[in-house]
């Protein structure tokens, strides 16, 4: 009997120990317990590899041309996965899960910033839609398509404030305004991660590029940045803070040196602000080879030094330059990197993997994107595209009347590539519906396409209107695509002037990833529709807007200049010390924009009235005085005319887009929050409120109040 008891006790202990041993494999155990359990089983080598990102698959992106790194051990923490389908990743994952000592799954990441297989408008265009809900639905599709290919981590949203159109990456972000960027950033994080990122169709977001990358000198990519701490806190950091509050699991440090310190080496940004002040529980990945680049930037003497500096600053994962696996162990042995910090970094990586449910579902999710039919997706993408396009000018020619004779000309008319823009992930041009196809469906035989400039001129003479499709080739914006000039290609402007000389009205559509300098064509064009890079459904969106099937409702997220010499020019600048005719350019270039932030025409006419304040509840009435239903974006601005820290001339504090039926009046409400909307931050990010006079604006309505 005694023996039986002893045996039972031994068995029970064995079960318990075994149970205890595999806590990290138990999906019902709390995540933090699983993390700690796994962490204590790992060797230093396994830990260091978890902090490493390599790559898998092929890619022709000129900025990260690659083939997979086959020599990388399957204990690697993450891989940038560039294959379109799941097979390769699943096979690699099987090795990681089944054939490594601890079976830790690999986190596959990729850049799917405006679609994965699908392609919808670039982020800058999404911002122009001012429609968070619509953009959110499109971004949810990205998450589903990523999962289908086994990608569980998207290097998006990019939420860099960018006020220099020469910088090629303005296309990837949400423009010049902190509130607009913060709102789209949070909505995109939610669209990717949902409430629970382990659920089907959900992936991890990565806020990038932390921080200040958009302010690179002269718009030159990778250049250093100098941003005062005041502007850092009141302009550049808020979109990131909003993404963290929305639950973003990861953050990518940026390439730039900021105020003398590369962000990848900044303990202040990566640890003090992100971890300690904002309480971020996920991890920071560096940008591509950014640890190595610390040497180029003059912040580290050699790669070992770079490893120590970046890691100790708080960069948990090293993207694709293998400096961590090469040098970290030696630095640990020398005491220059502490094991407790390695543990903390690994803890963060594992936490993200557990929160993503990667241990339970390490493989691609084949049913990912079936939730929506292809036609419903196309409808959504067309809607987002048409809501993001901005009608800059209309002398009354638009909408075009049915039956009019249209000459369709210009290099973008039948270009299925330009409309996709850069960073298009796996989107294929054959899924693009060109403007030509869209126009032919919309207007039937009324449309004649001119294949050459000469043909355009001869067809124009017997047409009622010319629709001239201009713009930049797709690879003129994106990473490493800075331009010193932001004009349309010279031959396109030439064609415009030749056609304008025929005396026929010219409707110009402009495809681009950045605001271009349109000053030369602006006056003579009968209408200008700015389409950005609208994605697969750009053609029908353009055609629908020109015919009036859609009513334009996009507004500019970035200021358009008269002349590139005005850059940077943005609406929320601080006021100059002298006004009126002081501080102007003596060579005749205006100091005001060609088209301001928030500008955009509609076929409807909206009149604002009755702006009033009841306590801190602001209301304004907007009447659609036209006979066409239309969507209006109400932009609520606040000015604080006198503050101990001079505040921007005006600041967007709230926006709302709504359909207003013809002849109807809608009331828009803005609940003002004293600290959030009337307060400010100092140069250390401390919020404060100063009582006094404030000015509230919506449309042409303005109201002063004291608080
Ligand atoms: C470099 C880019 O700056 C970054 O945005 C991107 O996510 C990585 N490469 C990975 O492709």
What would you say this structure looks like, in words?
Strands 11-16-15-14-12-13 form a 6-stranded mixed β-sheet, sandwiched between helices. A 5-stranded parallel β-sheet has the order 4-3-2-1-10. A 4-stranded antiparallel β-sheet has the order 20-19-24-25. It folds into 3 domains: 25-112 and 151-355, Glycoside hydrolase, family 3, N-terminal domain (TIM Barrel); 374-566, Rossmann fold; 606-706, Immunoglobulins (Immunoglobulin-like), CATH 2.60.40. The N and C termini lie far apart (84 Å). 32% of the residues lie in helices and 17% in strands. The chain is of the alpha/beta class. It has 21 helices and 25 strands. β12 (406-409), α16 (435-443) and β13 form a beta-alpha-beta unit. The chain is globular and about 80 Å long. 1-deoxynojirimycin (NOJ) binds at residues 64, 80, 111, 155, 208, 287-288, 479.
Comma- or semicolon-separated keywords:
alpha/beta, binds 1-deoxynojirimycin, Immunoglobulin-like, 5-stranded parallel sheet, 21 helices, TIM Barrel, 6-stranded mixed sheet, Rossmann fold, 707 residues, 3 domains, single chain, 32% helix
> What is Rg?
27 Å
CATH architecture of the largest domain: Alpha-Beta Barrel
Output the strand order for the largest sheet.
11-16-15-14-12-13
Number of domains: 3
Low-confidence stretches: 9-17
Q: Based on helices, strands and strand pairing, what is the structural class?
A: alpha/beta
Distance from N terminus to C terminus (CA atoms, Å) equals 84 Å
Tally of helical segments: 21
Report strand %. Answer: 15-25%
């Amino acid at each position: 009997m005694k023996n039986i008891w002893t045996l039972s006790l031994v068995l029970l202990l064995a079960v318990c120990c075994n149970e205890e041993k595999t806590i990290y494999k138990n999906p019902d155990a709390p995540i933090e317990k699983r993390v700690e359990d796994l962490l204590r089983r790992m060797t230093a080598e396994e830990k260091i590899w978890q902090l490493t990102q390599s790559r898998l698959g092929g890619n022709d992106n000129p900025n990260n041309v690659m083939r997979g790194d086959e020599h990388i051990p399957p204990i690697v923490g993450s891989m940038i996965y560039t294959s379109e389908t799941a097979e390769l990743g699943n096979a690699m994952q099987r090795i990681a899960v089944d054939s490594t000592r601890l079976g830790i799954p690999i986190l596959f990441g990729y850049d799917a910033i405006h679609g994965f297989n699908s392609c919808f408008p670039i982020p800058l265009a999404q911002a122009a839609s001012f429609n968070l809900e619509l953009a959110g639905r499109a971004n949810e599709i990205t998450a589903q398509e990523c999962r289908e290919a086994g990608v569980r981590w998207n290097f998006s949203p990019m939420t860099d404030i960018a006020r220099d159109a020469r910088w090629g990456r303005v296309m990837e972000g949400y423009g010049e305004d902190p509130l607009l960027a913060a709102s789209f950033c949070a909505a995109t994080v939610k669209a990717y991660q949902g409430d629970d990122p382990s659920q089907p169709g959900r992936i991890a977001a990565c806020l990038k590029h932390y921080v200040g990358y958009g302010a690179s000198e002269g718009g030159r990519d990778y250049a250093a940045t100098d941003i005062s701490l005041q502007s850092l806190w009141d302009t550049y950091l808020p979109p990131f803070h909003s993404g963290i509050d929305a639950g973003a699991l990861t953050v990518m440090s940026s390439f730039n040196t900021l105020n003398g310190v590369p962000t990848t080496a900044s303990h202040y940004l990566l640890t003090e602000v992100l971890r300690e002040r904002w309480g971020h529980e996920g991890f920071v990945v560096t940008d591509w080879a950014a640890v190595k680049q610390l040497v180029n930037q003059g912040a580290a003497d050699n790669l070992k030094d770079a490893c120590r500096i970046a890691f100790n600053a708080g960069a948990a994962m090293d993207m694709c330059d293998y400096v961590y696996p090469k040098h970290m162990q030696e630095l640990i042995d020398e005491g220059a990197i502490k094991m407790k910090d390695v543990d903390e970094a690994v803890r963060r990586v594992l936490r993200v993997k557990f929160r993503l449910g990667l241990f339970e579902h390490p493989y691609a999710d084949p049913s990912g994107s079936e939730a929506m039919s292809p036609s419903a997706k196309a409808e959504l993408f067309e809607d987002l595209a048409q809501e993001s396009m901005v009608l800059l000018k209309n002398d009354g020619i638009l909408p075009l009347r049915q039956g009019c004779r249209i000459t369709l000309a210009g290099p973008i008319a039948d270009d299925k590539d330009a409309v996709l823009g850069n960073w298009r992930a796996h989107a294929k041009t054959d899924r693009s519906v060109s403007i030509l196809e869209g126009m032919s469906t919309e207007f039937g035989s009324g449309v004649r396409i001119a294949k050459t400039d000469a043909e355009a001129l001869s067809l124009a003479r017997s047409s009622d209107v010319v629709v001239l499709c201009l713009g930049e080739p797709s690879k003129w914006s994106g990473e490493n695509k800075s331009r010193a000039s932001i004009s349309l290609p010279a031959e396109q402007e030439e064609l415009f002037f030749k056609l304008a000389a025929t005396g026929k009205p010219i409707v110009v559509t402009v495809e681009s990833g950045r605001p271009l300098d349109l000053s030369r064509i602006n006056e003579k064009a009968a209408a200008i529709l700015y389409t950005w890079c609208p994605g697969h459904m750009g053609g029908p969106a353009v055609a629908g807007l020109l015919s009036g099937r859609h009513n334009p409702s996009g507004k500019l997220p970035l200021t358009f200049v008269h002349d590139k010499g005005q850059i940077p020019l943005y609406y929320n600048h601080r006021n100059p010390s002298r006004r009126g005719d002081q501080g102007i350019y003596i060579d005749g270039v205006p100091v005001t924009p060609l088209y301001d932030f928030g500008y955009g025409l509609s076929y409807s006419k909206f009149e604002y009235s009755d702006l009033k304040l009841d306590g801190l509840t602001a209301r304004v009435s907007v009447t659609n005085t036209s006979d066409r239903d239309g969507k209006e974006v109400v932009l609520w601005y606040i000015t604080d005319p006198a503050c101990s820290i001079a505040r921007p001339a005006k600041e967007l504090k709230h926006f709302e887009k709504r359909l207003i039926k013809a002849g109807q009046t809608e009331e828009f409400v803005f609940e003002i929050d004293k600290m959030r909307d009337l307060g400010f931050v100092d140069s250390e990010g401390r919020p404060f409120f100063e009582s006094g006079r404030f000015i509230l604006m919506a449309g042409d309505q303005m109201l002063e109040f004291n608080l």
